[in-house]
Amino acid sequence: MTTWLRESFVSTSPFAQRAHVMSRALYVRGSDYETSDAVFGVKESLIVSLDTVTAEQAKEYDVKEGSKLLKYDFVLVTDEETKQLRHDEAIKAMKMLGRDGMMIVNGLPVPEVD
After folding, report:
1. Per-residue confidence band for 23, with pLDDT thresholds at 50, 70 and 90
2. Is residue 60 located within the same domain as residue 95?
3. The pLDDT of residue 60 is above 90
4. Which domain holds residue 110?
5. Domain check: are 42 and 90 in the same one?
């Protein structure tokens, strides 16, 4: 799969199903976009530097030597890990709001009752 990189790179996973869409954005270090994401802000972990394709890489991947090269590891989590994280964060948020005695049912906070 070939991906073209502009100063701000955004794509959607071809593996996303139903409403579970995965989006990711990377920002090239030093570009105007590095500090301009008005919605989420730019996290340091999403700022990337571009390398240059070496002769060996050009031959191996059939690309032009000297082209810009982006290296980035995307880490995916399982549905179970995502559900657990959402649950844990919801409980944490309820406690921060002083709402002890709450439990999460189907993703929603409800009072614990005897």
Report:
1. low
2. no
3. yes
4. 77-114
5. no
Are 69 and 81 contained in the same domain? no
**Which pLDDT score is estimated for 7?**
45
CA distance 112 to 84: 19
| Residue 71 contacts residue 51 (beta carbons within 8 Å) | yes
What residues have CB less than 8 Å from 73, skipping those under 6 apart?
none
pTM of the model as a whole: 0.50
Query: Which neighbouring-strand residues pair with 75?
Result: none
What are the structure tokens assigned to 34, written together? Answer: 């590095």
Nearest-angstrom CA–CA distance, 108 and 102:
10
Regarding whether 25 and 69 lie in a shared domain, the answer is yes
